[in-house]
Amino acid sequence: MNYIFHILIFLGIYSILIQSLNITMGYTGLISLCQAAFYGIGAYITALLLLKLELNFFIALPIAVITTVILSFIVSIPSLRLRGDYFILATLGFQIIIFNLMYNWISLTRGPYGIPGIPSPEIFGIKFDNPPKFFILSTAIALLTLYFFHLITSIKFGKILKAIREDEIAISTFGKNITKFKITAFSIGAGIASIAGALFATYVTYIDPTSFTLNESILLVSILTIGGGGNMKGPLVGTAVLILLPEILRFLAIPDSIAANVRMMLYALALIFILIYKPQGIAGEYEPK
Amino acid sequence: MFLQLLLNGICASSLFAISALGFSLVYNTTNIFHFAFGAIYTATAYLFYLFYISLGLPQIISIILSLLISALLGVLIDLIVYQKIENKLNSPLAVLISSLGAYLFIINFIALLAGNEVKIIEKGITQTFQIGSLIITKYQLISLITFILIFLLFLIFKKSKLGQILLGFSFNPKLIEVLGYNPNFIRIFVFVTSSILTGIASIISGFDVGFDPYVGLSVVLISSVALIIGGVKIFEGAILGSFLIGVLQSIVIWKLSARWVDSFVFLLFIIFLLFKPNGILGKKLRVEEIK
Amino acid sequence: MNQNNLKILELKNLTKKFDGLIAVDNVSVDFYKNKITALIGPNGAGKTTIFNLITGLYTPTSGEIIFKNKRLNNLRPYQIAKLGIARLFQDVRVFQKLTALENILTVFPDEVGENFLDGIFKRKTTKLREKEQIEKAKEYLEFVGLSGYEDHLAGNLSYGQQKLLAIARLMASGADVFLLDEPISGIHPKLIKKISQLILNMKEMGKTIIFIEHNINVVIEVADWVYLLDEGKVVAFGLPDEILYDDITRKVYLGV
């Protein structure tokens, strides 16, 4: 039974993560190779605030989000006013650096040894320390995030993001400051990804840098492309694929040691296949331009 | 001390420059951000290990075989993935995403077969030579000499008719046909050459420090940053950028540690983005080309 | 040309070079408020480049662009647009995956709803304003004859319909000066009359129009003033009748 909750919790966490990329890439057309870095920053900051400063999860969460957003400006402000390639490269560089920091800043992050013993979230005396209880928290936050997305994309803001994705030059000739919108979208994506990180850290209670590598960032891009971006449905389909595929592999009795690699290879193949035959993904509307 | 640092930097840069040349070749002629380039770098090292260590073949044979297969791999990626997508969608971003997919696939395939641990080709301490007060290792020397040879080849090729089209400032695919070359063969040539270049760098580096499935990442990062800070669309720029990065790396290693090199490369990149997005040699690219 | 008319846009010695190729060569042109000016000339004469320069997509190599007494030279495209210049692209460029209605909604200069926080904290006001904007957008669609297509994806409309949508989008921008790049090209003859009429309607609404066109009849029917360009230079200018039947024009177009 716990197993099912476990799956559902990860469904929630990953849906938040993929929605974060959806705002940046699916709606605005910016391919980010550093969502895993933001995910990781959220996780590490939350873990450290909970352990070292003994803050409450619900106080640490907004701090983690704000910090991640501020860090995202390092990437977005210099590169978004320039050509698309530069931005993608900047996200690549940022991803590599953040991983480097997690791995090498041992005094802060304990490097490859990771951070164990992360406390569970608690509020008003309720401690979310087992799967069924955590499921309630993660689902609540996932639904709130989904609602947040709906709120911001159903107004003009969302439409302009899509216009930028479709033809950024055209929309800029109608008076819209596309750089400002892009930076905003990217920041929102960063902040949301960090929320997923905070949940992840407090659920698995041990984090290390290997969960936040470039591999993961590329995986997220693949999943968004496969499921489809630019609307609310696509990411949910993508998340389902992401969560269910490993379970299917487990069913086929593929040994755990190579399961991770096989999984990645299958996603990579699916990605290329989708790009060739259905570039808007299974249920999305964004097609890479 | 300073001279030693400079020497270290220059030798490291030599390998970067070789890869950067390969990366730029693809980018400048096809406009493809060949992320899978990193996978080819990695694959060559593993192929060499397979032939030289696992199968015990002679060094030269192993090198030739690895580079050949590497070249084949590069061409296959282009034919099976890039061109298919280019024909379907007129979208450089889609090609980039597919390149990420190709990278992911190959790296995980390698990790699947060979494991995640670092592989070593040459055990023991590397031979060093003394020149005056400077020390240079065998592999630093090899890197430097190889780079000089390749650079000379590059210069000679640049003078040739084909070289002028391929390596000129504005690559023009139509011109290629007009001059009687088959564009398909040219494209294959581009991918073959780029794979061989990075393969060479990979093997030398493999001898020097070993490798694991993730070494290709740094290579893509450094090659693309070198290209940009040196000046996009200019091959000499990529080389210049590589040397800048190499010297920076050497200073970082001395002052801090090797682990922070990538971060400083990124920092350098950001600084260039902020102040000189055209790159050092960048012909004052029109604003509309960068924005 | 009545010299009492206000100059709204001036190109002064405008030059644009691309790697040694001179696309626009020392062009000096004045555009007058509420007039329709046509730019004609063979392909490659520099007309679209001039549009790109005015709208800020290109930076001038030398010379100046003055709009309402402001120097446009180094401004970004969105800043120039905000001052009151909007453009119809030769290749239309409507937002394919947005509906016809959304295409228009995105360009309204009113910034309510453009801040994502408005969606959360000022939702009621935002939604109310949106309702008003939807009504206005529908009017624009009606103006160009696309009523009923509000919820159709722009990408699903025919080329001619997309052109009409682009015109509606132009009107919604609230700009004073419209740059139309070959508004008539590639559309069904039946639509030509309609678009010509729309251009005249725009003038009646007080807009200033500059358009690039190859169709002689439309130019005669609609333009107040014509500039003939060739190889980046202004070769002749004057009333439509004068220019269009002139020998120079024939020479420039046909090389005769």
Explain the layout of strands and helices.
The complex is a heterotrimer of chains A (289), B (291) and C (256).
Chain A: H1 2-27, H2 35-52, H3 57-79, H4 84-104, H5 106-109, E1 122-123, E2 126-127, H6 131-153, H7 156-172, H8 178-204, H9 214-227, H10 233-251, H11 256-277
Antiparallel strand pairs in A: 1-2
Chain B: H1 2-30, H2 37-54, H3 59-88, H4 92-114, E1 128-131, E2 134-137, H5 138-159, H6 161-167, H7 173-178, H8 183-209, H9 215-230, H10 235-255, H11 261-275, H12 287-290
Antiparallel strand pairs in B: 1-2
Helix pairs in contact in B: 1-5, 1-8, 1-9, 1-10, 2-3, 2-4, 2-8, 2-9, 3-4, 3-8, 5-6, 9-10, 9-11, 10-11
Chain C: E1 7-18, E2 21-32, E3 36-40, H1 47-54, E4 62-67, E5 70-71, H2 77-84, E6 85-88, H3 100-105, H4 118-121, H5 123-144, H6 159-172, E7 177-181, H7 189-204, E8 208-212, H8 216-222, E9 225-230, E10 233-238, H9 240-244, H10 247-254
Parallel strand pairs in C: 3-8, 3-9, 6-7, 7-8
Antiparallel strand pairs in C: 1-2, 1-4, 4-5, 9-10
What does this structure look like?
The complex is a heterotrimer of chains A (289), B (291) and C (256). Helix content of chain A is 74%, strand content 1%. Chain A is mainly alpha-helical and 289 residues long. Chain A has one domain. In chain A, strand 1 and strand 2 (126-127) form a beta hairpin. Chain A is globular. The model of chain A has no long low-confidence stretch (mean pLDDT 92). Chain B is an all-alpha fold. Chain B has one domain: ABC transporter involved in vitamin B12 uptake, BtuC, CATH 1.10.3470. Helices cover 75% and strands 3% of the residues of chain B. Chain B contains 12 helices and 2 strands; from the N terminus they run H-H-H-H-E-E-H-H-H-H-H-H-H-H. In chain B, strands 1-2 form a two-stranded antiparallel ribbon. The longest helix of chain B has 30 residues, at 59-88. Chain C has a domain at 7-92 and 178-198 and 208-254: Rossmann fold (3-Layer(aba) Sandwich). In chain C, 38% of the residues lie in helices and 25% in strands. Chain C has helices at 47-54, 77-84, 100-105, 118-121, 123-144, 159-172, 189-204, 216-222, 240-244, 247-254, and strands at 7-18, 21-32, 36-40, 62-67, 70-71, 85-88, 177-181, 208-212, 225-230, 233-238. In chain C, a hairpin with a 2-residue loop joins strand 4 and strand 5 (70-71). The radius of gyration of chain C is 19 Å and the shape is globular. The chains are: A mainly alpha (289), B mainly alpha (291), C alpha/beta (256). The interface between A and B is large, with 48 and 46 residues.
